[in-house]
Design brief:
single chain, alpha/beta, 4-stranded parallel beta sheet
Amino acid sequence: MASWGKRLAGVRGVLLDISGVLFDGSEDGGVPIPGSVEAVARLKRSQLKVRFCTNESQKSRGDLVRLLRHHGFDISESEVTAPAPAASLILKERGLRPHLLVQDGVRSEFDQIDTSNPNCVVIADAGESFSYQNMNKAFRVLMELESPVLISLGKGRYYKETSGLMLDVGAYMKALEYACGIEAEVVGKPSPEYFRSALKEMGVEAHEAIMIGDDIVGDVGGAQRCGMRALQVRTGKFRPSDERHPDVKADGYVENLAEAVDLLLQHADE
């Protein structure tokens, strides 16, 4: 593998995943990953542009930012690319009326959307709301439509909280795809459109940006398919087998965000 200097040369913008990189969530709010608060602060003091790119779909963007600020992170809503606001915009543009299979905490993102007589289904990380009854209701809505539309906020398989690994929205998305014989539209990582929207907001080209995440497929693979570089941290949902993934190889593996920031600040200007 090339030297860090060659791998990181010319980076002008940094996309940061949140869960598993900045903090591990929990029912009581979670805990920051050691060194991550200061690592973000150091990035913000540098010449690098920074944007947060998350698949968080249990909380509204505002609630997520308030939680992170409570933990000491320097972050604002305008710096966060999140799937629920992006999906809300898509629904408005296309005149779609969703049946929402989401957590109550994210419903506020859809307050301005007509949900009467639904002509699509929006599925997010609904947690305990992924009951048989709720999944079957979403299935029935889709099956009653002549041209069913299923929009999934991300397609992750699992993520990590302080209590351990948690099943993510992707497993339930796949169940509805299989049952209905359709393919979901993914709003969130690893969708190329999602990464491109984050790059546009940050004002950098793909070859000038690097993604830092804990998901070898969603973060690393998704970013690389858009022409970005990507580092995987060995925190969050990282598993040693990720470094031997058959299809995706990160541009580098680091212990945590703090180490990634050390390397970026040392080599990005080379």
